[in-house]
3D domain-containing protein (Solidesulfovibrio aerotolerans), 141 residues
Amino acid sequence: MRVIAIIITVLLFAATAEASKHKNVSNRNNASKSRIAATVTAYTPDPRENGGRGTKSGTAIGTRIRPGIVAVSRDLLRQGWGFGDKVHIEGLGIFTIEDTMHQRHRRTIDVAVPNTAAAEKIGRRRAIVVTLLEAGARSGS
């Protein structure tokens, strides 16, 4: 039963990633948007990656960690990127910012994935083009 649940999760993640990869992303008007070269990594909802054993794992805004969201380094938040904003990561698709990373990271995006195998597939990618697409439902936006 557990194997079936894992297979279904992996298939759903693959379908979501594939669907977002094929969305029309216009490069028009992106000159006014934030476009950076960043390091892209991945993380899972596993408590060992999110505060330790016995800690409820969730995002900085209180949602659950799930595919389709990202954590960004705090320097990007200081540059005006915010929770709810959409970003396009070259080769991976479109994601929503819902989490932050430890303060030691700079110009880094952490993609939420369902399991360790998916995280290993992404690995650590350097100098990936990441574009801030639109402001989300933030107060003051």
